[in-house]
Amino acid sequence: xPELEALLREERVFYPPEELVNRSNIKQFMDKHGIKSxxxxxxxxxxxxxxxxxxxxxxxxEWFSEPKEIVSWEPPYVKWFVGAKYNIVHDALDKxxxxxxxxxxxxxxGEEGLERKITYGELYWEVNRLANALKELGIRKGDxxxxxxxxxxxxxxxxxxxxxxxxxxxxxxxxxxxxxLRDRINDSEAKLLITADGFYRRGxxxxxxxxxxxxxxxxxxxxxxxxxxxxxxxxxxxxxRDHWWHEIVSKQPRECETEVMDANxxxxxxxxxxxxxxxxxxxxxxxxxxxxxxxxxxxxxxxKENDVWWCTADIGWITGHSYIVYGPxxxxxxxxxYCGAPxxxxxxxxxxxxxxxxxxxxxxxxxxxxxxxxxxxxxxxxHDLSSLRLLGSVGEPINPEAWLWFYKHVGKERCPxxxxxxxxxxxxxxxTPLPITPLKPGSAVKPFPGIEADVFDDDxxxxxxxxxxxxxxxxxPWPGMLRGIWRNPERxxxxxxxxxxxxxxxxxxxxxxxDGYFWIQGRLDDVLNVAGHRIGNSEIESxxxxxxxISEAAVVGKPHEVKGEAIVAFxxxxxxxxxxxxxxxxxxxxxxxxxxxxxxxxxxYFVPDLPKTRSGKIMRRLVKAKLTGGKIGxxxxxxxPESLILIEQVIERS
Length: 654
Ligand code: WT7
What we know:
By secondary structure, the chain is of the alpha/beta class. It is globular, with a radius of gyration of 24 Å.
């Protein structure tokens, strides 16, 4: 990475403003414990029992009954706050309805300009009423509820209602296709689905209930459906199965008891892509997750009572679960929530929102930053963004150029950027700056206190401060650590714990420089990162070969200016089918239908053959090398070398 190396040589370091440092939550925590420096903080927090006990107190966790043990680690399974009785909804909601009844929890804005503000008190009633409705429809502790909703306040309401009665929510991003929804319902065996009639996107209408109905044609575990009326679409309702949200909820009492759970009972399942075509159902549990998300939010983004927090992610991804729903609510924060396209109707929509509501802390993704960079500085400059004090980035490595643009044009060189590295599996930030740490553009700085991450070589030796690329690993359990893959313990053990015993393998490559700063280099496995979202190569390949014209497919990533990675597909046609531009669009649409729009290939090449091993495994790595001009490397297992020459010709011709 020449860009990064150039920067490193320049040793450009950015220091946080002194006032921000002095007033920061982390500084207060350090003062309280007589901790003098960042290094000392990292050192002291190696005592996990001490550190996470303190964190639980600092974020105000209230137990139904106290834990007997802080952490119990039997690789590859962890338990946190063992023996405690707890429910995350108590801290996120029940407690807040007393402490902050009239404080706004969510400031919501729809694409069409509609605005809603919901206080903690109102949120509490709404959650209770829906929780009672879920009970009436037969949902009990341990049941799974699928949620397929766009960015509406009813989405956190639905999640909290499930958690309140001890059911697990399994959210499916509303941009996913009916097929993707169906697979996730079937894997989780959800009994109930919560969805909406439709919603607006880029001025058009998305018919969500219609999509849900398609999924339900082949999802027999679903017994009941709750449909939220968002835009007043006429949708078919199946009498024995479908209920309007407003009808079933209006007759419910406004109180609902919060289920007393074990601290380690599961809270939700969230699916993420892996190296096979089948997504992984990542499981998170109540207490550890609660402490982890709230502590990281409090100390990384420095949230205080009067902040206006805006995390631009969709709640359908982990970022939204942790930092729009649970983290901010546990801290009693006010969050902005926007349902619409970032550049609609004009490229300054987001900056308008920042100005209008006085957003103070703003957390987004490199892909969005790059998009705004391309749209021109004038759209940002038009607005008064002086309310901002801290910025954040997540989803993929942020290139120094985007970092500097964000710093200069959005943060006006006053706001440090928290480049947070984490995953669906980790639940919360793992490698991250703090508001007191000097920043190097493109580096996620160091592990959060109480977390031990490292970079290993192939044999498990640490490459710390050697500035050499290796496997990013986590050496000790952390509170938000996943509790497994839903009904697939073998895959859990194999994916994360097989390579280095008792050490969590993240799947990312990284290096640690001489100052101990982490530089994330991207995924090592066959997973693409498109616009900050993980998509398995094989998932797209299976979608392609499910089309009647395609016999084989290899999908690889290629650097892309805005999205980080573009999806490039190489496909082999079945006999009787002809290559054409029409077929290309058809294939793109087909993948869109199978998985969702974000998975549609940007480029498609028709090739006569794909490189394969003697055992018939497609060698994606070689296809990628041909496409990006990278090193071909070892080809001793390649059975059909001529395929590579033909691929080269096809690429050259287009
Ligand atoms: C993968 C996890 C966690 C929220 C969003 C994505 C990449 C995430 C960073 C960052 C470099 C990053 C990694 C990781 N990633 N944040 N700050 N710098 N890379 O969640 O879909 O579970 O994807 O996103 O490759 O493994 P996810």
